[in-house]
Amino acid sequence: MSGDDEAKWHWAEGMKYALEGIKLLFILNGAAAISILTFIGNTKAGSALLVSAMVCFASGAAMTIVVMITAYLTQLSYGNASMNKGVSTSSWPAAVRMHYAAYVFIAVSILCFVSGAVLAACGFLHIPCPDVPCPHHP
């Protein structure tokens, strides 16, 4: 395998892992939002913190759509730039900007998940349980 072919193979494999990671972010955020909805529906109790957590999880799931679009545009820009190697073009800087934008959106999706998890934990701690004495809820 030549160096160019090996590099293409590694890029293709890297894209597979990136795609699976983006799918995982969507599943984590979506499943977390659904689990909070299920909990609230079954207990008939809730709090503003749980609603905020659900919004964070839903936002994180929605952000993965933006990540997928940005990743597609990144690859499209890289492909266009590689076809015009001898021609002065603005495709390469555009590809790099889209590449970093995808990283930012991934970080925002992860931040939404972590924020949602913290808010959900706080929300669950503030829901009174009738069987367990709690100093905060007499």
Please, could you describe this protein's structure?
The chain is mainly alpha-helical and 138 residues long. It has one domain (3-125). 81% of the residues lie in helices and 0% in strands. The chain is built from three helices and no strands. The chain has helices at residues 3-43, 48-83, 91-125. The longest helix has 41 residues, at 3-43. The model has no long low-confidence stretch (mean pLDDT 80).
Q: Short description, anyone?
A:
By secondary structure, this protein is an all-alpha fold. It has helices at residues 3-43, 48-83, 91-125.
Give a quick account of the main beta sheet: strands, pairing sense, barrel closure. Answer: none
The number of distinct structural domains comes to 1
How many beta-strand runs?
Answer: 0
Note the total helix count: 3
C-alpha termini separation = 71 Å
Topology at a glance:
Elements: H1 3-43, H2 48-83, H3 91-125
Notable traits:
138 residues; mainly alpha; 81% helix
